[in-house]
Amino acid sequence: HSKSVSAGRAACRAIVHVDLDCFYAQVETIRNPELRDKPLGVQQKYIVVTCNYEARKRGVKKMMSVKDAKEKCPQLILVNGEDLTPYREMSYKVTELLGEFCPLVERLGFDENFVDITEIVEKRLNQLQQSGCSRVCVSGHVYNHQAINLHDTTHVRLVIGSRIAEEFREAIHARLGLTGCAGVASNKLLSKLVSGTFKPNQQTVLLPESAQDLIRSLDHIQKVPGIGYKTAKRLETLGVRNVCDLQAFPSAVLEKELGVSIAQRIQKLSYGEDDSPVMPSGPPQSFSDEDSFKKCSSEVEVKEKIEELLPNLLDRVYKDGRQPHTVRLTIRRFSSTNKWFNRESRQCPIPPHLIQKFGKESSNVISPLVDILIKLFRKMIDVDLPFHLTLLGVCFSNLKDLPSSTKGSIGFYLKQMSPPSGSGKRVWEVEDVSQGEGSASRTQNCNRTGTTKTRKLSEEKQSNIKKAGVPDFPFHLSPGDIDQEVFRELPEDIQKEIISEKT
Question: In terms of pTM, does the model score above 0.70?
């Protein structure tokens, strides 16, 4: 295994990671310029999810309780940030602006973007060589104050990349009024790690020879992007707590414990190796909203919280113009030992007669949607026993353009439910906010997916179907017309309607 970043294909890439400074607070300052230069915090429930640098100078930190923040800084001005609409809208403006420079822009949360500038760098390098110019100056900092070798084309490419990153930051500030940091490196992992070296409103370029110093400077294995909480906990049980431990750990043992693909991936990450491409985000493939709280312990409360989440979600779906075909409910049970990472979800297709009502008749779909979500809730929670939830979330996914010629055809919608087999498209999930500003109350999820995973019916569900006397799939109908999995998920009256329509 090579213990340094590949100097071949990977080193030819130039990736910029743009990370906006205290994003929510900046957006609030733009909305109300009187808040500028004053200690400002953005509050969600009883937590300060982010604050500006004026507040940080006075001891306020992200994810601090409102009570503690006020004690640290009595002059702290708090703005309610539970409505994420202004942050989401500004976030997309940043991504769109970066897209004017380069088509390869990938969103990561509300306040971060990756940009693959390899082709732009190559063009500028050719222009430099054709002009006979041998001098090029770096913009911002060089990690470790490493000397630049202008005879090394990898160095020159990254230096050119630093100039482009500065252009990005200048454009974001001039047109949107936002400041941010940037990291320039040969892959996504390293560009993200190096972007925060100098804050705020600064940038850093990482040359390949310093990559190991950067990686080994991480004090905990979970600081490596791509190694999540659960994997980090499993690694800790193996005695792996930092990057050096992971690099030295026997590959064969790691593969046995975690599986070959995960073991190889995270061990590559520990060496700073990351060949993952920058994936243009495009329009979101799901809309979700969730609410966290100290305690929810009755079905009545669950129903109320679902009813609170739906109007905003339906409004976002309406503005998008596409129709969702799947709805998902997520819950988090209270746990004193595992506070944030014990989520459960259930999903099902949205009945076709409801899909047609999305948009103009959105108010008419709330009640039946609540009924569907409560049924999903009961699949996870036995309401006859005591329960203690700390989070509820609703997600609409499997978004499709409104059909023109076959609008209203139940069979058409069912046929569209399943993607072509072997589409081979990758599934990407980005949890907005949590990787950027953090969220104490609501987070928005965007599933970047080119296809939809059809959830297999469990043995329990199939037996329940038989017990309820629901007709089995009518096999005399062409399988190409109707998705069998989806058919079984539908209410009995809709199933009968489809059968009568087809026969």
Answer: no
